[in-house]
Every structure is written in structure tokens, then in C-alpha cells.
Amino acid sequence: MKVSKAQKSDIPEIINFNINMAMETENKKLDEQTVTRGVRKVFSSPSLGYYIIVKNTSGILGCLMITYEWSDWRNGLFWWIQSVYVKKEYRRKGVFRKMYNFIHEKAISDKKCTGIRLYVENNNSIAQKVYTNLGMVETYYKLFEEDFNE
What we know:
The chain is an alpha+beta fold. Helices cover 35% and strands 27% of the residues. The chain has one domain (2-119): 3-Layer(aba) Sandwich (Aminopeptidase). It has helices spanning 11-26, 32-44, 95-109, 125-133; strands spanning 2-5, 50-56, 59-71, 76-86, 113-118. Strands 1-2-3-4-5 form a 5-stranded mixed beta sheet. The N and C termini lie far apart (37 Å).
């Protein structure tokens, strides 16, 4: 398995992964045109973030997106892990761990990065265990939102 920053040629697979992830995790059908514009925007606007992929000889096994949040308290950026997806047949085989380790190394060496964050569904105990095993800790924050696309 090889981890790398995604290229524009990976966009169709990333779109597919995002659509599959929403259906699997939230039983939510995403609009393909909207997702396509959203993924393409990340590639055309690097300040928004970037995607990481894991490949082997059979193709892309998984991906995630990194976005940024400025922290005035820490005078640095939190890197947010978002849009995590691993093909079903490759889950629990170290694919996410490879991506996380890749990001972790980059984050530690970037003086502007103050930490890595992600959010996870309350009932996704398998993912929570994975994140804990990687050294992440649950924060005392709750996430609130007002979604204007609903």
C-alpha cells in the first residue's frame, strides 16, 4: 500500500467514495453534481485543503480529506480529517492507519499545525476505537451545526 496526496485523475474515485460514505454512514443520498463541484473545488483551491489516497496494485483503497481551522488560542491551525472512506474489502487492514500516520508525520513537521481533529458519529464505536488506538483522545466539546443545505 502506498499513501500519497491525491491527483486530479483521482477525482472520480473520490466523488464515488464520498457518495458511498454518506449512504453507508447516514443513509443519505448525495447529489452527484454537488459532490463533484465540491471535490473539484478542493483541487482548484488548495487553501481549502487536500485529499490523501491509499493505493495498491488494484487501485485506490481509501481516501480522506484534510481541511484547516484557525485557532487564535494556539496561534496555529488544526488539521481536520474529513470524508474518510475505505473500500469495504480493505477495512480493518490498516488502510486508515497508513493515511493517519502519513498525515501525522506531515502535521508534526509543519510548525503552523497545532493538532489534528476529526468528528465521528456517536454510535460508531469501531471508528472510535481505531482513533483511540492511534493516540487520539475524545474532547469535551460537542458539535453543533445549522445546515443550510438540508
